[in-house]
Backbone:
């Protein structure tokens, strides 16, 4: 059998078998339209409302504040656009490290609605200054939305949600956090952390693709972004994805019931990967805060290899290893992502190779050994090629 080592869990995770069984069962039995008043419809509606209550309980929120959507991208777009369209937001404070779905939605509000967009500049480790944030909040009377992600999907840097929420409250701003990489992996108490909006995607914690939710604080009075029927507390029209919601609920339950065990195992795996890489690849470093287990998400490790090899993703794939290169590839040419361009200097960009390795509770030390050995082999052939290049130049 061919080896398959999956180390791209920040992109998506394999669906848990229990999630799959729950979805199959729901599809088979709860096929009614949740808006229908007959029993078949009401049974499907009950599935949805049970998941809503279950999620709200874990996050310490009201059930009516959980709005099911098709994914993290939709949740983030819905929140950002609705804040501008219906809550009279005239200024957005964000950072250049946000996921594309947040960055593009914000750019769109600037282009189409003339919203003022202000970017907090990260330092070389990708850390944002909360003093700068406070100065910006003080500097204008415009209705402001802060949009800053909880954990960066490329380097794993974590934001102090509580401090930012408190600043938002102090200066009467709204606070949206893209929590797609952290819901299902970190505890979140939405009573203790008074943020206004958050987003979740089931496929990041062994749930199905095409299912997520937006947390929308009741007091925010957001209006719908997708128009039509009165589904989802009149905030998101469209016949609900009942099986997807059931799968999200099952994945959410498994993630939070096993949070301690899973996070302990994954943190150990991450630590092991850091040690093995340091021992085997002299000069390896880690981007942003990802090498520091206390200030970064335990599922993500952003590696900087001390040699240039744009083909490494392909070479690892040929050995059965799935990783992300932390780069956007177009027409065969790979160029570093915006996040890495912010964090790395020209010399590093020219002479090194980034890799994003991301783990789940299914990742084993043997898989890390196989991955590190493969990188080591590629690294020696890359140095040979670099040396040969130098001779022929
Ligand atoms: N936000 C972050 C931080 C992500 O990592 C992702 C997915 O990669 C998204 C948003 C988009 O989520 P989805 O794939 O559910 O649209």
Residues:
């Amino acid at each position: 059998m061919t080896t398959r080592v999956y180390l791209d869990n920040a992109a998506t995770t394999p669906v848990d078998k229990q999630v799959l069984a729950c979805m199959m069962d729901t599809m088979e039995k709860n096929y009614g339209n949740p808006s229908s008043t007959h029993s078949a419809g009401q049974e499907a509606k009950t599935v949805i409302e049970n998941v809503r209550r279950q999620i709200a309980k874990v996050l310490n929120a009201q059930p009516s504040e959980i709005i099911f959507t098709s994914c993290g991208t939709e949740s983030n777009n819905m929140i950002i656009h609705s804040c501008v369209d219906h809550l009279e937001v005239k200024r957005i404070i964000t950072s250049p490290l946000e996921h594309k779905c947040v960055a593009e939605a914000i750019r769109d509000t600037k282009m189409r609605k003339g919203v003022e967009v202000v970017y907090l500049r990260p330092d070389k480790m990708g850390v944002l200054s909360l003093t700068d944030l406070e100065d910006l909040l003080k500097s204008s009377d415009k209705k402001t939305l802060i949009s800053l992600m909880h954990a960066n999907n490329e380097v794993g840097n974590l934001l102090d949600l509580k401090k930012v929420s408190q600043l938002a409250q102090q200066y009467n701003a709204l606070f949206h956090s893209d929590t797609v990489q952290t819901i299902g992996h970190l505890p979140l108490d939405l009573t203790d952390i008074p943020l206004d909006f958050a987003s979740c995607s089931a496929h990041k914690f062994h749930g199905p693709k095409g299912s997520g939710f937006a947390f929308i604080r009741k007091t925010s009075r957001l209006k719908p972004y997708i128009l039509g029927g009165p589904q989802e507390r009149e905030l998101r029209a469209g016949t609900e994805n009942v099986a997807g919601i059931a799968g999200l609920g099952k994945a959410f339950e498994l993630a939070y019931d096993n949070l301690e065990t899973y996070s302990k195992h994954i943190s150990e795996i991450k630590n092991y990967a850091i040690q093995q890489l340091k021992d085997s690849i002299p000069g390896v470093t880690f981007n942003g805060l990802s090498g520091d287990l206390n200030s970064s998400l335990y599922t993500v490790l952003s590696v900087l290899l001390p040699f240039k090899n744009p083909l490494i993703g392909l070479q690892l794939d040929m050995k059965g290893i799935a990783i992300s290169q932390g780069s956007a590839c177009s027409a065969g040419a790979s160029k570093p992502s915006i996040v890495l361009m912010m964090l790395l200097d020209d010399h590093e960009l020219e002479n090194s190779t980034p890799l994003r390795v991301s783990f789940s509770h299914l990742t084993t030390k043997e898989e890390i050994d196989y991955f590190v050995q493969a990188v080591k082999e590629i690294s020696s052939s890359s140095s040979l090629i670099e040396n040969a290049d130098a001779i022929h130049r």
Observations:
- The CA atoms of residues 59 and 189 lie 5 Å apart.
